[in-house]
Amino acid sequence: MENATYDVKIWSTRKYKGKSGTTYTVRWKVGKKAWPETFPTSALADSFRSELKTALNRGEAFSLTTGRPISWTKREEVSWYAFVCRYVDDHWKGVSGNHRKDRARILTDATEALWKKTAGKPQRDLIRKALQAWSYNAEHRDTDKPADIASAIHWIEQNTVPLSAFEDNATTRAVLARVSERKDGTRVAARSAIKAKRVLSHLFDYAVECGHLKVNPLSQVKWKAPKVSQELDQTSVPNPQQVRAMVDAIATQRPSGPRLKAFFSTLYLSALRPEEAVNLKWSAVHLQPRVWNPEQEQWCDPDPEEDWGQLIVREVTPDVGKRWTDSGRQRDRRQPKGRAENESRPVPCSPRLSRILRAHRDEFGEGPDGLVFFGVRGHQLATGVYRQAWHRARKTVFTKEQQESTLAQVPYDLRRACVSTWLSEGISPAQVAAWAGHSQEVLLRVYAKCIDGNEERDKRRGTKGFEGF
Asked: Which domain holds residue 255?
């Protein structure tokens, strides 16, 4: 029988005592794959295991897809919840931790619009935690769970609509409406709504591929995508004096401030993304060597005019959380954005930044594994450390009105300020795009106003080549 087998083994129920209570997991094997099902009580677990054994004793074949007896598959359509779990499993490998995390959140939002009934429904926050942290996480779904989580999942399994419900366009519209809202009912940013629709479209395409749906239901409804402003909000970009004040304020914070001065200076002077800077290693920092000054009898920095170096961005480590990375570490490890594996991006290191980095190395040395920036305890720089330092500096440096605005809201705005400055100074967009790790198309779309502002200067430059005519 296609996609089914008689090779089935049912193990004894596993009891787990956790901090939040006791759970009972029924485990069985279909072909080469083991299947677990966790219940909040032993009675529910025993009942489920008994049904499995009854089917096995009757000589029924079991589905390799669902792990259940074929007769169960025939009498029950695949539910939204069961299919999402399969989709997550089949699209887990080769995907970044950030995408896994965002996908779980979006599918959790969608699930909230797909209940068959609400009787006995667990609390909303518990349902969301159960779905995001366990069910829609391929690595953790089958791990031991607190009793309240297991109970919530058991309710969810019984109470999501079948995929056939999407034959009704009203169901599709309800899901689109839900993923376009935050938990409190307010509208999400346009970019987030479009991303959610993209995730759902990919899932429905897979449902069509698996034969559960005839067409992608999103193609059957009209949905007007929110308008997304691609241009940079220039009010968020700090000027050089504001950046200097922020960096100086951060440097006074103890104990991390002094070592964060070079970190934020690097974001501003080289347009590195924070996840690129936290993983920058000294082996990727190429500075001019110091020169011996016989008059002063000491080593000195090179002449400022010649003191150009280079930074090589080889790998980034976005902070996505331990549950979402293949390594089980807090930070994922990825190639630079928009780059193929093992491809790097060179970025110029200006004389000003060269001096800052040399002083940083003199004072703090090298971090673990040769890291340029690291915490006071000798570990890789934590996201919370530099974000808190940034927010404290905003309160110190900016007026109340500025604090309530978008001005320098996040450290990433230093990168935007650097790219804006490069373009304003007349550096070609192609060169800026290469340094910043953007495509030229994205650069011209996002930073169009930074380029347009130089029209008068460029017109004057354009006349020089015709002198003598």
From this structure: 237-311+339-456
